[in-house]
C-alpha cells in the first residue's frame, strides 16, 4: 500500500512539473511572438511593399508615399495608421482615405480623390472645383473637358455656386462633356449652354435626376430646340 501511495504521489508531482513546463513554454512562445510582431524587423514596413491607389487626377501619389514611407523600418503593429490617415487627409485633392496594414511588411492606401467638375474664373486664372465646391487646383486656361461656371467666388454667391455645381455633378458623363458654360444669377436660376449652342434652364438643384432624364429625352425628340426649360420637369418647355 505504501508503495502505491508513493507511486501516485510521484505521478502527481510529475504531472505538476509537466504543467509548469507547458505553461512556461506557452508564455515563452507568446512572448517571442509579441517581440517578433512589435519589435522585430521581420514584420517591419518595407518601402517596396507600400501600395497607393485611387489618386485620380488631383492627388500627388508620390507625396502620399512619402507620408507612408516615413515609417519604413517600423514594425507594422507599432505604426500609427490613424495619424498617418489624418496626415494624408490634409493633402490637396484627398476627399477620404483608408490606411490598412498589409502583412507581413506592407501598408495599403486606398484614396478617394476630389475630382474637378468645373472651372471658375478667378482673375487671370481658373480655379478648379469639385462637386462640393472644394478647390482642387488652378489653371491659366480652363481644361477642355470642364464647363466654365460664371459665378463669382464670394460669400454672396455661395448658394448660387453650390446649385450650379450640383447641376454639373448630376450630369451623366456624355451630357457633362457637352456643357460649355454654366451660369446662375440665384440658386434657383441655373442655366447651362451646350457646345452646340442649346441653352438648358434647370431652375434650382431639386429633382435633378428627373430633370436630367427629361433633358436627355428632349435632346432626342426636339433636336431643333434652341432652349430647353426643365425648371418644372413635369411641364418642360422647348422653343
TrEMBL record:
Q: Where in the cell is it found?
A: Membrane
Give the Pfam families listed for this entry. FtsQ_DivIB_C, POTRA_1
GO aspect biological process, one term: cell division
PROSITE patterns reported in the protein's UniProt record: POTRA
Broad class of the protein's primary localization: membrane
Source taxon at top rank:
Bacteria
Q: Where is the POTRA domain positioned along the sequence?
A: 45-114
The alphabetized UniProt keywords are: Cell cycle, Cell division, Cell membrane, Membrane, Transmembrane, Transmembrane helix
Q: Which PANTHER family match?
A: CELL DIVISION PROTEIN DIVIB, CELL DIVISION PROTEIN FTSQ
* Descriptive protein name: Cell division protein FtsQ
